[in-house]
Amino acid sequence: SLRDRLHPLGQPLEARQQILRPLRLSQQQLLEVKRRMQREMEGGLAQETHAKATVKMLPTYVCATPDGTEKGDFLALDLGGTNFRVLLVRIRNGMRRSVEMHNKIYTISEDIMQGTGEELFDHIVNCISDFLEYMGMKGASLPLGFTFSFPCQQNRLDEGILLQWTKGFSASGCEGENVVGLLKEAILRRKEFELDVVALVNDTVGTMMSCGYEDPLCEVGLIVGTGTNACYMEELRNVELVAGNQGRMCVNMEWGAFGDNGCLEDFWTEFDATVDENSLNPGKQRFEKMISGMYLGEIVRNILIDFTKQGLLFRGRISERLKTKGIFKTKFLSHIESDCLALLQVRHILQDLGLKSTCDDSIIVKEVCTVIARRAAQLCGAGVAAVVDKIRENRDLDFLKVTVGVDGTLYKLHPHFSKVMQETVKQLSPKCEVSFLQSEDGSGKGAALITAVACRLREAGQH
């Protein structure tokens, strides 16, 4: 036909659209995701269903956002990925209200991530020791906040049992253990300095707190980076795992596991299945695997392989390079979609990855990246919509004004992710006016603020 002759991608275009169709989500489908998320949230909060719930809704024992009177010197640790940070945070109040930070970044090798727990925590204490020396503070016993970005069952602010490792960690002897205890034991083994570990902090909560220092309306924390997760201020009466009915408590949703019970099955494509099967934790964190930076490149790669097998891309030739797991990093996805890129540059990016491509190939690869990132942002938006409407309904409001503190490389670096996500929230939660605030170092500053608030409450004798 004329159309096929005029459009070089004619019939193959139809074949490709066929493959991509299940990855394009309608408003109706997104509303359904929001509804299911709300159902799973209820399951995690309720006493009788919590044990088998997949969205765990873990109590964090953080009951207050900063009020601006916090002050003092605090240490913060940040462990959540391949880097580990130690920070000194000076908080001043009053007219000269400010937060001043010094930090040092240390790497954690794969050997240590996947070795023994003792090695991991000895390495952490080693880094703290180096930092204290570097800051000339070996003698001081400072209050410490520990950002630990893995699912923990907390029974107090300063205690957390690691439920399971995620994001490529698998150090032995840690799951089922109190990580604050593991840290304290490692400090004792070293016999070099004393620290007062005041708070164990999830990075979502740190993000919410550091944004809450700037904006008192901030009651939700969101991470979209290597992994994804969220937290929000829930009414204590709804947190059935914790006694008491007055006030609020921040709940760490651990929403990456949404769908692990199969409730999102009708949204999974063959590509999601393949990525899941080839991951370190098959069957786990299924929502995260559709959204976060660690997995999007893999979804893209699997679609490109499928296209190539069907002769729709790379002239039907699957290179060794394309068979290589993990070649498309988050940076690549952000880069390829930036609007100022000419197709020639997209071709260069592909060439750098060892993929020989024509101009048509480049158009196709870019489209696949767009579809996958868009779906991720929409799913994330459906999750946020579920959360803000829950807060609104909790408070019997016809209208809620709320701020979401956000962190994570995908959110910050991707050219369209935040825009698509915010549009989705607007569509799915019309009765909420939601602002998004990028957090400045939630895991560092946030951990220090949580520690500072805890010290403030401790001094005021409110336990």
UniProtKB/TrEMBL annotation:
<keyword id="KW-0808">Transferase</keyword>
<dbReference type="GO" id="GO:0004340">
    <property type="term" value="F:glucokinase activity"/>
</dbReference>
<dbReference type="Pfam" id="PF03727">
    <property type="entry name" value="Hexokinase_2"/>
</dbReference>
<dbReference type="InterPro" id="IPR043129">
    <property type="entry name" value="ATPase_NBD"/>
</dbReference>
<dbReference type="GO" id="GO:0008865">
    <property type="term" value="F:fructokinase activity"/>
</dbReference>
<keyword id="KW-0324">Glycolysis</keyword>
<dbReference type="GO" id="GO:0006096">
    <property type="term" value="P:glycolytic process"/>
</dbReference>
<keyword id="KW-1000">Mitochondrion outer membrane</keyword>
<keyword id="KW-0067">ATP-binding</keyword>
<feature type="domain" description="Hexokinase C-terminal">
    <location>
        <begin position="220"/>
        <end position="453"/>
    </location>
</feature>
<comment type="subunit">
    <text>Monomer. Interacts with TIGAR; the interaction increases hexokinase activity in a hypoxia- and HIF1A-dependent manner.</text>
</comment>
<dbReference type="GO" id="GO:0005524">
    <property type="term" value="F:ATP binding"/>
</dbReference>
<comment type="function">
    <text>Catalyzes the phosphorylation of hexose, such as D-glucose and D-fructose, to hexose 6-phosphate (D-glucose 6-phosphate and D-fructose 6-phosphate, respectively). Mediates the initial step of glycolysis by catalyzing phosphorylation of D-glucose to D-glucose 6-phosphate. Plays a key role in maintaining the integrity of the outer mitochondrial membrane by preventing the release of apoptogenic molecules from the intermembrane space and subsequent apoptosis.</text>
</comment>
<dbReference type="InterPro" id="IPR022672">
    <property type="entry name" value="Hexokinase_N"/>
</dbReference>
<comment type="pathway">
    <text>Carbohydrate degradation; glycolysis; D-glyceraldehyde 3-phosphate and glycerone phosphate from D-glucose: step 1/4.</text>
</comment>
<keyword id="KW-0963">Cytoplasm</keyword>
<protein>
    <recommendedName>
        <fullName>Phosphotransferase</fullName>
        <ecNumber>2.7.1.-</ecNumber>
    </recommendedName>
</protein>
<dbReference type="GO" id="GO:0005536">
    <property type="term" value="F:D-glucose binding"/>
</dbReference>
<dbReference type="Pfam" id="PF00349">
    <property type="entry name" value="Hexokinase_1"/>
</dbReference>
<keyword id="KW-0496">Mitochondrion</keyword>
<dbReference type="InterPro" id="IPR022673">
    <property type="entry name" value="Hexokinase_C"/>
</dbReference>
<dbReference type="InterPro" id="IPR001312">
    <property type="entry name" value="Hexokinase"/>
</dbReference>
<keyword id="KW-0007">Acetylation</keyword>
<feature type="domain" description="Hexokinase N-terminal">
    <location>
        <begin position="17"/>
        <end position="213"/>
    </location>
</feature>
<dbReference type="GO" id="GO:0001678">
    <property type="term" value="P:intracellular glucose homeostasis"/>
</dbReference>
<comment type="pathway">
    <text>Carbohydrate metabolism; hexose metabolism.</text>
</comment>
<keyword id="KW-0472">Membrane</keyword>
<keyword id="KW-0418">Kinase</keyword>
<dbReference type="GO" id="GO:0005829">
    <property type="term" value="C:cytosol"/>
</dbReference>
<dbReference type="GO" id="GO:0006006">
    <property type="term" value="P:glucose metabolic process"/>
</dbReference>
<comment type="similarity">
    <text>Belongs to the hexokinase family.</text>
</comment>
<keyword id="KW-0677">Repeat</keyword>
<dbReference type="GO" id="GO:0005741">
    <property type="term" value="C:mitochondrial outer membrane"/>
</dbReference>
<keyword id="KW-0021">Allosteric enzyme</keyword>
<dbReference type="InterPro" id="IPR019807">
    <property type="entry name" value="Hexokinase_BS"/>
</dbReference>
<keyword id="KW-0547">Nucleotide-binding</keyword>
